[in-house]
Amino acid sequence: GLCSSLCFNVSIICASTICIWVSNHYHSQPLHFQRIAGSSVSPGLQYFGQSLSSSQDLSGDSLTDIAVGSRGSVLLLRSRPVLLVKTQVTYSPSKISTESTDCKATKRNEAKVCFQVSKVTKDNIGVLQATINYTLTLDATRLRYRAHFTPNTRQLLNTVRVGLGLMCLSHPFEIPNCPEDSLSSLSNELQFSMTGLPSSSADSLSPILDPGSGQRTFFPLDFERQCGADEKCVDNLKVDFNFSRYGQRGLTCVCTVSVP
């Protein structure tokens, strides 16, 4: 699995608390740190953490369990399955059209939000599910945004229940035909959090999110550029001035300029 070594540090000074650092061969720094106080496991425990054993799977789910000793009792702390969530947002159409000249109208686009869920831990737990709460913000880096889901609303909040595999949802939005800036991309932001649901096949054990999951990602949406067949835009702007009449009124110069 991902975790090839578990290191434990126990200190009675921490008021009966065990501290767990998780690391692997690919990272010199700990990937995850967890502190478990005896009072959070069961009230009244004394000398929680005075002995530890973490080399066996005692629950039969192929995950390493931790046996923790305290005065008069031994407790079994089970490892939880870990899920990796990858996100992707695509658009239809893939670029914003700049051909329309009706500035009072809007154009419709659709964002397809996808979550790819995979299991990191090598366990034998069958069905794993979780709830994902996510927020999609259009043109997130600008104060005056150029797209909206409903008038005056550029942010969408939603909740979806996921299992292992791919889950996608589509969300329509609108863009004005004549935005104040049609050169720079719309930088749309997706943020999410995950809450594991109890598994009936693992005595209500719930999965947790892998720390490597990117919970905040930007997915740009570009404007079309009419640059010819080679799709390379070259500036070639020329302005000719024709001063057809020139005169002076007092201290003020008056001239007529024609721009063809």
From TrEMBL:
<keyword id="KW-0675">Receptor</keyword>
<keyword id="KW-0732">Signal</keyword>
<dbReference type="InterPro" id="IPR028994">
    <property type="entry name" value="Integrin_alpha_N"/>
</dbReference>
<feature type="domain" description="Integrin alpha first immunoglubulin-like">
    <location>
        <begin position="79"/>
        <end position="212"/>
    </location>
</feature>
<keyword id="KW-0401">Integrin</keyword>
<keyword id="KW-0472">Membrane</keyword>
<dbReference type="InterPro" id="IPR032695">
    <property type="entry name" value="Integrin_dom_sf"/>
</dbReference>
<dbReference type="GO" id="GO:0007229">
    <property type="term" value="P:integrin-mediated signaling pathway"/>
</dbReference>
<keyword id="KW-0325">Glycoprotein</keyword>
<feature type="repeat" description="FG-GAP">
    <location>
        <begin position="34"/>
        <end position="94"/>
    </location>
</feature>
<feature type="signal peptide">
    <location>
        <begin position="1"/>
        <end position="15"/>
    </location>
</feature>
<dbReference type="GO" id="GO:0007155">
    <property type="term" value="P:cell adhesion"/>
</dbReference>
<dbReference type="InterPro" id="IPR013649">
    <property type="entry name" value="Integrin_alpha_Ig-like_1"/>
</dbReference>
<dbReference type="Pfam" id="PF08441">
    <property type="entry name" value="Integrin_A_Ig_1"/>
</dbReference>
<dbReference type="InterPro" id="IPR013519">
    <property type="entry name" value="Int_alpha_beta-p"/>
</dbReference>
<dbReference type="InterPro" id="IPR000413">
    <property type="entry name" value="Integrin_alpha"/>
</dbReference>
<protein>
    <recommendedName>
        <fullName>Integrin alpha first immunoglubulin-like domain-containing protein</fullName>
    </recommendedName>
</protein>
<dbReference type="GO" id="GO:0008305">
    <property type="term" value="C:integrin complex"/>
</dbReference>
<comment type="similarity">
    <text>Belongs to the integrin alpha chain family.</text>
</comment>
<keyword id="KW-0130">Cell adhesion</keyword>
